[in-house]
Design brief:
Strand content: under 5%
Number of strands: 0
Structural class: mainly alpha
Radius of gyration: 22 Å
Keywords: Membrane, Transmembrane, Transmembrane helix
Protein name: DUF624 domain-containing protein
Organism: Agromyces rhizosphaerae
């Protein structure tokens, strides 16, 4: 009998330890659940990031659908690291919810990006005076556009929609300038990775979605 009790206790302890690692429970009485239990399993998180990269690439392959894809991808990773439900059904549910307004944002972003790219090409041709300055303006504009898209994707939710995300976007970026710079670095990373080798866009987009989730949650040092 004692041996059976001992085995049961060991099984319960092992289950508690697993619950502590992934946030699913049960846990031991003296254990404090991690803030982001899904992030404690490093290999599982890596796999989920790569999966999200594949999903975002597939949904965003038309380019105009990329905002909706990023919004759904960030929400999927946010649920995963919080050890909430993170099924593919929820991801595609978010895609359906984000597509109506996301298509308009995607079309506007594509148009603006095309104008900025044309500006860079003309500036680089040497046909116009002040071409170097025009090229800088074009590149800065593309970078600002990538930051806005990433931040808006992180702010979108099915309840509030894209209008609320765009309304709160300027204040969100202004309140966290370092976070905006991190998003800019993320945009550069995606661009460079894609330029270096096209298939790298898949893990790059997964990492971008993770960055959108992680940057607002990072520890911050407040002055005063």
């Amino acid at each position: 009998m004692d041996r059976n009790h001992e085995r049961a206790a060991r099984r319960a302890d092992a289950a508690a330890r697993r619950g502590e690692r992934d946030g699913s429970g049960p846990t031991r009485d003296d254990h404090t659940v991690a803030r982001f239990p899904g992030a404690t399993a490093k290999f599982a998180l890596l796999g989920e990031v790569l999966l999200v990269g594949v999903l975002v690439t597939l949904v965003g392959i038309l380019i105009v659908t990329l905002p909706a894809a990023l919004a759904a991808g960030t929400r999927h990773l946010r649920r995963f690291i919080r050890a909430e439900g993170s099924s593919l059904g929820l991801f595609f549910g978010d895609v359906r919810g984000a597509l109506p307004g996301g298509l308009a944002i995607g079309a506007g972003a594509v148009l603006l990006a095309a104008v900025l790219a044309f500006d860079i090409v003309i500036a680089s041709s040497g046909l116009l005076p002040g071409g170097a300055l025009m090229a800088v303006v074009g590149w800065v504009g593309l970078l600002a556009l990538s930051v806005a898209l990433l931040a808006a994707a992180g702010l979108w939710s099915p309840q509030s929609g894209w209008r609320a995300a765009l309304r709160t976007l300027p204040r969100s970026l202004a309140d966290d300038i370092p976070g905006a710079l991190y998003l800019a670095a993320t945009g550069v990373f995606v661009g460079v990775a894609t330029w270096a080798l096209l298939p790298l866009v898949i893990p790059a987009l997964g990492c971008a979605a993770l960055a959108v989730v992680a940057i607002p949650e990072r520890p911050r040092h407040r002055v005063g």
